[in-house]
Amino acid sequence: MKNLKMKAARAGKDLSQQELADIVNVSRQTILAIEKGDYNPTVNLCIRICEALDKTLDDLFWPK
């Protein structure tokens, strides 16, 4: 399932995939794969992404 919530939150912070990847210490391809729904990140990576985007785990990773 695509993670459009994460993509929207990233865009809302005016961050490129590369900039977010640099902040959370992963590759740009990892961010792309998460947004496309091709990769399920670890809980630790989810937390780092949430902190970088000022969102909660529920906001970004829990289906509603």
What this model shows, in words?
By secondary structure, the chain is mainly α. It has a single domain (4-57), classed as lambda repressor-like DNA-binding domains (434 Repressor (Amino-terminal Domain)), CATH 1.10.260. The chain contains 5 helices and no strands. Helix 2 packs across helix 3 (28-36). The radius of gyration is 10 Å and the shape is globular. This is Helix-turn-helix transcriptional regulator. Pfam families: HTH_3 (PF01381). Keywords: DNA-binding. Residues 6-60 form the HTH cro/C1-type domain. InterPro entries: Cro/C1-type_HTH, Lambda_DNA-bd_dom_sf.
Give the total of domains: 1
Q: Considering the protein shown, what is the CATH homologous superfamily? A: lambda repressor-like DNA-binding domains
CATH class: Mainly Alpha
Quaternary status: single chain
Share of residues in strands: under 5%
Shape verdict: globular
What is the count of helical runs? Answer: 5
Order of helices and strands: HHHHH
End-to-end C-alpha gap = 12 Å
Q: Which parts are unreliable, with pLDDT below 50 for 5 consecutive residues or more? A: none
Using the coordinates shown, work out and report the CATH topology: 434 Repressor (Amino-terminal Domain)
The CATH architecture can be given as Orthogonal Bundle
